[in-house]
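dumping this here before i forget
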Amino acid sequence: MSQSERGPESVVADLRPSVGMLVLPTILLVAAVGAVAYFLFRVPEPWQRWAVAGGAGLVVLFGFIVPLWFWASRRYTVTTRRTILREGMVVRRRREILHARVVEVGLRRTPMQAFAGSGDVILQLGGHTAVLRSVRTPGLVQAAIVDLVDAERTDREVRRLRSGEQPRL
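structure:
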């Protein structure tokens, strides 16, 4: 069966990590702004003002901007034939996983992820693992990928039987 007989590949889901990953960084941002507003004009020396502003700047940079950057740099696309993991803004990395190669689809949830309604979907590829980190409704994503993997296996088996190939042992 050629690709034209199987139908075109279509996007099933376009996902990002859960925005719940940004709750703590947002709290740090608000705390840093509040600390600057409180302490900036309460300290007597100019060097102390610079120290307060510099410390708050570092907290904002490493506590908010870096996590926001990592969150925005991840995207997962599930299609009818493969799952695509894209990461990075400056150095981009793209990983394509054919559903025919997936051995097992797992789900991992930490207590915080369970509280936020997110979790990690783990794709076992024999000796390798691919993780869709902190996706919303991970049970639904896992079930969809399992269905797509089963459909790909069934399609491959039908193609094998039509071609007259003997089963592999």
